[in-house]
Amino acid sequence: xxxxxxxxxxxxxxxxxxxxxxxxxxxxxxxxxxxxxxxxxxxxxxxxxxxxxxxxxxxxxxxxxxxxxxxxxxxxxxxxxxxxxxxxxxxxxxxxxxxxxxxxxxxxxxxxxxxxxxxxxxxxxxxxxxxxxxxxxxxxxxxxxxxxxxxxxxxxxxxxxxxxxxxxxxxxxxxxxxxxxxxxxxxxxxxxxxxxxxxxxxxxxxxxxxxxxxxxxxxxxxxxxxxxxxxxxxxxxxxxxxxxxxxxxxxxxxxxxxxxxxxx
Length: 264
Ligand code: GLN
Fold this sequence. Notes:
By secondary structure, this protein is an alpha/beta fold. It has helices spanning 2-28, 61-72, 87-92, 107-110, 152-161, 172-180, 191-200, 225-241, 243-251, 254-263; strands spanning 38-43, 46-47, 51-54, 57-59, 76-81, 98-99, 114-115, 120-129, 145-148, 166-169, 186-190, 204-206, 212-216, 219-220. The strands form three sheets. Strands 8, 9, 10, 11, 12 and 13 form a six-stranded mixed sheet that branches. Strands 5-1-6-14-7 form a five-stranded mixed sheet.
């Protein structure tokens, strides 16, 4: 009887060990990436405070989130700075593991790539010269609008106001230059880069009216399901631990957010 009890106990211990080893193996299983041991991200480092060039490298909210993901997955981070419009194609064709670029999750983009859980909210806003008569999005009818090519601002403006009224610039900074030079009457762009551009330029303001509200997420190739699951896990951890908020606070001051809330 005692012998039977002992062998049952031994069998139970063995089973527990096998189970926990499987669980451990599942958790630590390395995700497959384009380059072994490396997380290749595609971004467009012209979009402060999400991504911008700093010295010889890159900084910003997305760059830090990508760094935290790479660290959690035991990978080395490699930043590829490319045109915004080539990010999805590059991810889809397996050139990069992920695209992280203040990228809005849209139904159309979901036809080509998968998106992670949302990690931030973006708002399309309108930048005008301080003395402009444009007050709301309705006033954009028939006006010359500057946008950053291939962005949602570009897509919405072409749809709402006609391609012939939209001038596409390579990045937000160039669109703002176009506004200063009087080539366009306004620039439609995401709110955080808009704030950076307006703060750095005399005579411009952001209208106190929101054009479109959107969700930022990371794009991943459709077939990389293991990577998608791993990234969603890391995003959840970063949210729950408060680390994501810490990263955001480093680049967007809490005071500014409170000011925004007050003015609503
Ligand atoms: N959120 C916008 C988009 O996804 C702009 C992103 C960007 O310019 N980096 O199209």
